[in-house]
Amino acid sequence: MSIIRNEVLKLFINGNTKFFDLYIPQKFDYQIHLISGAEHCLSELKYFRCDANINQNILIGLSSICKSIKKLRFDDIVQYNNNFGIVKLIKAQKNLRDVCFNCYANVREKSHCKILEESLIKNVNTIQYLKIEWTPTTRILSYLVNLLSLDINLSSMNFSLTNIQPHYTNWGYLKNASLPNLKILRAQQVPSIILARLIENTKGHLAEISICYEGVDNRKLIQVIYQNCAHLKYLKLSFINADILELENLLMKCQYLNGLVINIFENNPDWDNLFKILARSSPINLFKFKFSSFKTLKLESLKSFFDNWKDRIPMLLQANPYCFYYSLFINKEQQQQLTNLVKKYIKKGIVKNYDLDWHIDEDFEWKNSD
Questions:
Q1: Which of 2, 131, 274, 363 is most buried, judging by how many CB atoms fall within 10 Å of its CB?
Q2: Is 163 contained in some domain?
Q3: Which SUPFAM superfamilies does the record associate with it (predicted)?
Q4: Within a domain: 70
Q5: Pairing relation of β-strands 259-264 and 288-293?
Q6: Residue 158 within a domain
C-alpha cells in the first residue's frame, strides 16, 4: 500500500507542477518535501491547512521550502501536542497574513498557547487576520498593529470540566489590547465587559461585529458599540429583554448598518417592543435581518413589523429556533401560519426573501451579494 501511495504522490508532486493550495489530513505521515521536485512544486504555496496532529517533521520539512504562505490553518490544536513543526513553519514565512488555530479540546494549557502566540512575533507587521480558540496568554495582540480581523471562539470549551468560568479567566491581555485598524471582531463566550474594553481601544474602524454570549446584560456593550463604531455595517449580538430599549440608540447612531443578527436568550421574548423599535428606528440601509430564539416568532408582532415597513427596501428575513433540539418541539401549525404570513407580504413587496428554518453557520453571508 505504501508503494502505491508513494507512486501516486509522485504523480502530483514533481518538477513539472506547482501547487498554490495544500491540505494535509489527519494521520498523514509522509515526508512530501523529500519527493524529487517538491521544492519546485511547493515553493510558491499561498494557502496551507493541516491537522495539527500530523507528524511534525512534515511541517519542519515544508518550512525549508515554503516561505511565501499567506494563509495558514491548523485544525485540532490540543494541549498535549508538541507543535514544534507548526512553530517552525509559521516563523519561516515572509508575508504571512492570515492565521487560524482551531481547537477541539476542552482544556487549553497556558504554556502551550503561549508558544503558539509567540510564534507569530516575527510576522506581526504582516498578519491581518487571526483566529484563536483560547484566551490570549501574551501581549501578542497589541503587537499586531495591522490586524484587520480578530476571531476568538471559546464555544468548544466546556468550562464545567475545567472548573473555570469565563468571568474568572484572566482577560487582561485581551481587554487591554490596542487594535487601531481592526475592522472585524468575532467572539464567542467572551464576557461582554471584556469586549466593551477592547472595542473602546479600537479607532472607530469596526464595520463588522459578531458576538455570542448568552444570558448576560449587554447594555453596556451596546452603548460602547454605538459610541465607538459609527461605520458599523453588520452586527450580531445576544439580547435579553432588558437590552431591547438600548438597541434603539444603536440603530439611530449606526446609520451605515446593513445587516442585523439578533440572538434572544429569553423564555418570553418581547417581540412587540423589538419589532416596534426596528420599524421605527432602523437606518435607511438596514433591511437584512436574522432572528434566533428558543421561541417561534410571534405572529401578531411580525405582522405589525411588516405593516410598518412600507416604503422601505424590501427586507431579507431569516429566523430559526436556536438549536435543532428546540426545533423538534415547534408547533408546526404555527410555523405554517408564519410562512403564509411572510408569503403574503412578499406579494406586497415588503419582504424580498425569507427562510424560517435557518440553520446556516455563516452570520453575514449577505456580504457576498453586496
A1: 274
A2: no
A3: RNI-like
A4: yes
A5: parallel
A6: no
Q: Indicate the residue type of 353.
A: N
Per-residue pLDDT of the chain (370 residues), as tens digits, is 467 766 777 777 887 889 999 999 888 888 888 888 889 999 999 999 999 888 999 999 999 999 999 999 999 887 556 789 999 999 999 999 999 999 866 556 788 889 999 999 999 999 999 999 999 999 999 999 999 999 999 886 654 444 445 544 678 999 899 999 999 999 998 999 999 999 999 989 999 999 988 666 789 999 999 999 999 999 999 888 888 889 999 999 999 999 999 988 888 899 999 999 999 999 999 999 999 887 778 899 999 999 999 999 999 999 876 544 444 455 677 778 888 999 999 999 999 999 877 665 667 777 666 5
CA dist 92 and 114 (Å) reads 18
Largest CA distance in the chain: 70
What is the tally of structural domains in the chain? 1
- Domain span at residue 41 reads 1-96
Within a domain: 55: yes
